[in-house]
Write a structure and sequence with these properties.
Blueprint (H helix, E strand, L loop, with lengths): L25 E2 L2 E2 L1 E10 L2 E10 L2 E9 L5 E5 L7 H16 L8 H10 L2 H8 L8 H20 L1
Antiparallel strand pairs: 1-2, 3-4, 4-5, 5-6
Helix pairs in contact: 1-2
């Protein structure tokens, strides 16, 4: 194992126990999570940073804890989901549904999301202006709500 770390196709020939393929987005109707987490522990500080994808949707957070009990923290999601990011993620999920890798989401639902995640359609549905600063926040909530109801209905 002196040649570690190994990247790319060489990983499969290293004889390590690794999954044979990418993880599915869902298992038994529940979204799967992929995590990356780093923490630093010291007598006078705890610092942690995390990055995850839950059913393909990104979430990031950070926290700093001090010895006196104060805690500072923040997260990116359930924050915003830009139009470009939504289209990219939904297109990837749509491809997975189309080739049979993601059976828990209907193609109709994804087509509906591709339409209603657009700024003008979302603004009308939410009753706000198309240039509203909160539109990315509303888009994230809308996409999550639709996907959760779809998985609950089909799972």
């Amino acid at each position: 194992m002196s040649g570690l770390p190994i990247r790319g196709e060489g990983v499969r020939s290293a004889g390590l126990a690794i999954p044979p393929a990418r993880m599915p987005f869902m298992r038994r109707g529940r979204p799967l999570k992929r995590w990356r987490y780093v923490a630093v522990y010291a007598p006078d500080l705890l610092l942690s940073v995390g990055d995850a994808r839950i059913a393909g949707v990104p979430q990031r957070w950070w926290a700093v804890a001090l010895p006196d009990g104060r805690l500072f923290e923040g997260e990116r999601f359930p924050g915003s989901l830009s139009f470009d990011e939504a289209m990219n993620l939904l297109s990837g999920v749509r491809l997975g549904v189309g080739v049979g890798l993601i059976p828990d989401v209907a193609m109709y639902t994804l087509n509906k999301l591709l339409i209603y995640a657009q700024p003008a359609h979302l603004a009308v549905a939410e009753g706000v202006a198309p240039d509203d600063a909160d539109l990315p926040l509303r888009r994230a909530r809308f996409v999550r709500k639709v996907l959760e109801s779809e998985v609950g209905r089909r799972g």
